[in-house]
Amino acid sequence: MTQRLPLIAGNWKMNNNHLEAIALVQKLAFSLEDKDYEAAEVVVLPPFTDIRSVQTLVDGDRLRIGYGAQDISAHDKGAYTGEISGAMLAKLDCAYVLVGHSERREYHNEDDALVNAKIKAAFKNDIVPLLCVGEGLDVRKAGGQVEHVLSQVDGALKEIPAEQAERLVIAYEPVWAIGTGEVATPADAQEVCSAIRGRLAELYSADLADKVRVLYGGSVKGDNAPGIMAEKDVDGALVGGACLKAEEFVKIIRFAE
Ligand code: PEP
């Protein structure tokens, strides 16, 4: 079995101007020790307007903190007012990009076909997509979470070849747990994360499924992270609210201690 390095990614959402971004990354870098980077990959996902500042800080101080974006255009370039292309993100050395976050699906009507096109745009620019999937409360109450999530995975991965899919990261984020303080139980997270891995094995191979990191996201905090991350198929966390405070984010990064 592949030893998958846990990934702890902080989705800043629409928080922090570029000066606040610098302060937060500096605080994070100051708090983290070598052992932390060996135990987990640490990534921040700031708003577009902060990425250049984060890049300058990471490069200048040779920080081991990775960074990426929260969205990517499905288009290469041209008359798409307000959009940011994969080539632009690649030029800023973004390693990751969130795709299909539930807030994009809900407020911007992003469907699986658009999510699929954005995954293609990311890979085309050598950026790793961090694909978000998850069910709403009604689906969960009806017990349809696995079926719902697997259909999102199928839609997102259409025509994505194995050599790309093996680099993908998938975050299981139940919509009812995002920003609500209502975290999934470790067993809930494991059920869906293992089903996602199973679907990757069906779509590609057991070998590939074994390599892909599957994260959990939804009200992760320092105190609930150890229980969730102890599950066999949970390889890290996508963190929203709790990543805005360096001390809390560091606690999550140190989930194994
Ligand atoms: C998210 O937005 O991806 C998220 C997981 O948010 P929160 O941690 O605040 O629930």
From TrEMBL:
The lineage of its organism: Bacteria, Bacillati, Actinomycetota, Actinomycetes, Streptosporangiales. The active site is at H101 (electrophile), E173 (proton acceptor). Substrate binds at N11, W12, K13, G179, S219, G240, G241. Pathway: Carbohydrate biosynthesis; gluconeogenesis; Carbohydrate degradation; glycolysis; D-glyceraldehyde 3-phosphate from glycerone phosphate: step 1/1. It catalyses: D-glyceraldehyde 3-phosphate = dihydroxyacetone phosphate. It is found in: Cytoplasm. It holds the Pfam family TIM. It is an enzyme of class 5 (isomerase). Gene3D superfamilies: Aldolase class I. Involved in the gluconeogenesis. Catalyzes stereospecifically the conversion of dihydroxyacetone phosphate (DHAP) to D-glyceraldehyde-3-phosphate (G3P). Homodimer. It comes from the Bacteria. Keywords: Cytoplasm, Gluconeogenesis, Glycolysis, Isomerase. Its EC number is 5.3.1.1. InterPro entries: Aldolase_TIM (IPR013785), TIM_sf (IPR035990), TrioseP_Isoase_bac/euk (IPR022896), Triosephosphate_isomerase (IPR000652), Triosephosphate_isomerase_AS (IPR020861). Its main location: cytoplasm. Transmembrane segments: none annotated. Belongs to the triosephosphate isomerase family. The keyword Hydrolase does not apply. NCBIfam families: tim (TIGR00419). GO terms for molecular function: triose-phosphate isomerase activity. This is Triosephosphate isomerase.
